[in-house]
Design goal:
single chain, 168 residues, mainly alpha, Arc Repressor Mutant, subunit A, RNA polymerase sigma factor, RNA_pol_sigma_r2
Length: 168
Amino acid sequence: MGNLSQIELLLPELRAYARSICGPTESAEDLVHDAIERALRHATRPERVEELRPWMFRVIRNLQYDELRKRRVRREYIAVQKRLLDESDGTGSGGRDILIRLAFEKLPPEIREVLFLIDIMGFKYAEAAEVMNVPIGTVMSRVSRARKELLRRVNGDGQNEKRTKQTP
């Protein structure tokens, strides 16, 4: 029996589990679909139904927790943005937040992308690597360089982005 047939046998249980952890909404069905897609793409998924069943449940659980984490990060980001908009004086830590936001917006797109995925959206390095279609190590080095560049600009070292050589 192939993995697709085994997954088909598990569908009622997978749907019931998804509904139990996210409620009887469309998102439960989406969760099952995402888990099946991931299982079919995963080269080392279990072959026997006895091993596949708990493995699929873990995939569903992990996908749900990832989604909840992403929603929380988005809510926190939106709350910060709202607070920044509500602040009128631009002093204190709010002023620093505005500086960071302005510096972020001036970064080149490839630097903004990795910072957005990792620091704002809360993606794991592996998720960002998949989105960007690069190895995890590349994401890690880009994040490090991007954070340094953002900090450099916030601290005022990036005001003159086109520096000219000055002769003594």
